[in-house]
Design a protein that fits this description.
Elements lengths: L6 E5 L3 E8 L11 E9 L1 H11 L3 E5 L1 E3 H5 L2 H7 L8 E3 L5 E7 L5 E6 L14 E9 L3 H10 E9 L1 H7 L1 H11 L2 E5 H7 L18 E5 L5 E5 L2 E5 L13 H16 L2 H15 L11 H10 L4 E4 L1
Parallel strand pairs: 1-4, 1-9, 2-7, 5-6, 9-10, 10-11, 11-12
Antiparallel strand pairs: 2-3, 7-8, 12-13, 13-14, 14-15
Length: 309
């Protein structure tokens, strides 16, 4: 019997990303002329969805957007990339989320975000659905709680993003312990949510449902805090860094997908590092690699994973 194809639901933002490629990121009262510009779909949940679809998993995006996104072909492009957009709510009189991304040589970026119709997201738009993986991205704990009350999932991951981490630091960990398997943070968000506790001591936080805390560290790789130890994966180098936008979304998409398939968090960590390392060599937030690319590097050049004792 063929194994069942895992199904994901990604909950969060769907944006129109407008990229400006500049020689340097301007400061106050400075002007930087763009050498190139391009437009594409973005938003953490949408980026996650495309990365999952590239692995051959089924994925539905739960989000809100404006009519302009549909007119610009954003939804059609997501569909062409394998994402089910039937759960996306389209509002005639709302602007879609729009993000202006300034990308400098070396992949450094600055982003200006307008949430628009994304603010309509509640999290309880879908009721009584069961999936293999549920991922909530860049949303507050109110949305997270409504989602987990409405959708049943074998694996739940939550990447609150910087705004929610700053606004709700004290609540995120408490809710995650009861409702989330994988909590995803960058280093700044880790300090906000967990405090000054060293990674090794953070293992004591893994109780209730919470099994993993992932700390994304950019060019330094990522750390996985798990019940069986503290693991660090090196950043995978696939070539010149062009654009880091969406790399974290690709990382967690691949980690979740391999974890639910293989049940092995070390392999999942390596695959995620490879996927993010390939993604940053390509422009755009949704340039996730294929399964074949990831598998080739897993066989030939897997990134090193160190266990901290």
């Amino acid at each position: 019997m063929e194994p069942k194809t895992p199904r994901h639901i990604a909950v969060g933002n769907l944006n129109i990303d407008v990229y400006m490629v500049v020689d340097y990121i301007p400061g106050p009262d400075e002007n930087s002329v763009a050498r190139e510009a391009y437009i594409g779909p973005g938003g953490a949940a949408a980026n996650y969805s495309v990365a999952v679809a590239r692995l051959g998993h089924k994925v539905s995006l739960l989000s809100h957007t404006g009519k302009l996104a549909e007119q610009l072909g954003v939804l059609k492009l997501l569909q062409e990339r394998g994402v089910d957009t039937s759960l996306v709510r389209i509002h005639d009189n709302e602007m879609p989320g729009i993000v202006i991304v300034l990308v400098a040589p070396g992949g450094e970026r600055t982003m200006i975000t307008m949430r628009g119709a994304n603010n309509r997201l509640r999290g309880d738009e879908v009721q009584g659905v069961t999936v293999d993986v549920l991922h909530v991205a860049s949303r507050g704990t109110d949305v997270l709680q409504r989602v987990i009350s409405s959708i049943r999932a074998g694996l739940v991951s939550y990447d609150p993003g910087g705004a929610a981490a700053r606004r709700e630091a004290s609540r995120i960990l408490d809710i995650a312990r009861n409702a989330v398997d994988v909590l995803v943070l960058n280093r700044v968000e880790y300090k906000l949510v967990v405090g000054d506790k060293p990674f090794a001591e953070a293992q004591s936080l893994l109780n209730g449902r919470l099994k993993y805390i992932i700390v994304k560290m950019g060019a330094e790789g990522a750390t996985l805090i798990s019940r069986d130890g503290l693991w660090h994966v090196e950043a995978f180098r696939a070539g010149q860094v062009v654009d880091t936008t969406g790399a974290g979304d690709v990382f967690i998409a691949v980690f979740n997908s391999y974890l639910v398939e293989k049940g092995d968090h070390i392999t999942a960590l390596q695959a995620a590092s490879i996927a993010a390392g390939i993604k940053v060599t390509r422009r755009g937030a949704q340039s996730a690699p294929s399964r074949e690319e990831i598998e080739r590097f897993l066989r030939e050049k897997p990134p090193r994973v160190h266990k901290h004792v």
